[in-house]
Write a structure and sequence with these properties.
Largest sheet: 5 strands, mixed
Bound molecules: coenzyme A
Helix content: 25-40%
Order of helices and strands: HEHHEEEHEH
Strand order of the largest sheet: 1-2-3-4-5
Structural class: alpha+beta
Oligomer: single chain
Number of strands: 5
Length: 159
């Protein structure tokens, strides 16, 4: 790991990050304009049960983000779930993803959550060895079903 990798700083996201969050989100295949992303980030930032962190390089450029949340189901009770994660394509394999996940895990521990889970599309080939390297075990495979509720207001695709 190089010195510059050590210098990547993980911090809570702010509304100043919206433009860069939109750029990084688009690399996931979800093209989104900053103007559309902004209200989503605003809602996220005021939630106590959700954490949005960014990784900032020494240059000041944001090179990744992670979204985690406390989820509760009747079957499983409370747990931490990683709802989104991306590292800029040019900045991968330098420990940034590992740091972002560590930040969410620490957040979950502080909330007293005993487990962290993540669902990852089988098409995201790099994510599977990544999570396994971080100590995550694959517990099941699911199909995801989807149905529009409001014509014209549903996302055109679900990944
Ligand atoms: C998955 C992703 C977040 C990994 O980010 P990253 O910054 O490259 O990961 P890191 O450098 O922190 O890697 C952590 C460990 O995973 C391993 N790893 C990361 N990507 C890997 C890959 N493609 N193949 C094999 N191992 C990989 C690294 O070798 C490293 O192990 P080590 O520290 O023991 O050497 C990044 O590839 C990404 O944004 N992919 C597209 C979006 C995505 O799949 N998000 C997850 C959806 S849930």
């Amino acid at each position: 790991m190089s010195d510059s990798d050590e210098a990547v700083d993980v911090r809570p996201a702010t509304l100043h990050d919206v433009q860069r969050l939109a750029e990084l989100t688009s690399t996931l295949g979800y093209a989104v304009e900053a103007a559309d992303l902004r209200p989503r980030v605003e809602r996220t930032l005021v939630r106590d049960d959700t954490a949005l962190y960014v990784a900032e390089a020494v240059t000041g450029e944001v090179v990744g983000w992670i979204l985690g949340a406390e989820q509760e189901t009747l079957e499983m009770g409370r747990r931490c779930e990683i709802l989104g994660l991306v590292v800029a394509e040019t900045g991968r394999r330098r420990g940034t993803g590992r740091r972002l996940v560590a930040a969410i895990e620490a957040w979950g521990r502080r909330r007293g959550l005993g487990r962290v889970v993540v669902r990852s599309n089988i098409a995201r080939h790099e994510s599977h060895p990544f999570y396994e390297r971080l100590g995550y075990g694959r517990v099941k495979t699911q199909h995801v079903y989807s149905k529009p509720l409001l014509p014209g207001r549903d996302p055109e695709d679900l990944r």
